[in-house]
Specification:
The chain is mainly α. It has five helices and three strands, in the order ααβααββα. A hairpin with a 7-residue loop joins strand 2 and strand 3. The chain is elongated and about 115 Å long. The termini are far apart.
């Protein structure tokens, strides 16, 4: 594993093929052939992805006779999730503050509109009394 495990984890997760491999391993151990099956790539190409995942500590490969099973090692994912979590809380706090601010602004606007409506009641135009209509010049 590299000197910075978190960087190695994020670098490994940067590729969609490697993320798909991890998702597949979440259901249990699989052989390299089983992991390669859904991808339109050669076995050596899949093996390169597995090596990146292994160096990052995200998978463990073992040998059982002819079978080389791979299994998920979730520890580095937990560390990455913990790192991301602190930023999720940061943004939730920011969004909560924005929501509070918008509510205040809406309440102020509603109060101002109510105040303006009570001060400016439009006068009704009176209809002319019957027989007192304005005469028009023809």
């Amino acid at each position: 594993m590299s000197a910075d495990p978190l960087s190695a984890t994020f670098a490994a997760l940067a590729d969609p093929t490697r993320r798909a491999i991890l998702a597949s391993l979440a259901s249990g151990e699989k052989s390299v052939t089983e992991l390669a099956a859904p991808f339109a790539m050669t076995l050596p190409a899949v093996t390169k992805h597995l090596k990146v995942l292994e160096r990052a500590g995200l998978i463990m490969r073992s040998r059982e006779a002819q079978w080389r099973p791979c299994r998920l090692e979730a520890g580095p994912l937990k560390e990455a999730a913990g790192w991301v979590e602190q930023y999720r809380r940061f943004w939730e706090d920011k969004l909560d503050a924005l929501e509070d601010y918008l509510r205040e602004m809406q309440a102020q606007e509603a109060a101002e509109a109510a105040r303006a409506a009570s001060q400016h009641k439009p006068a009704r135009k009176k209809a002319p009394a019957p027989g007192k209509e304005k005469k028009r010049d023809h």
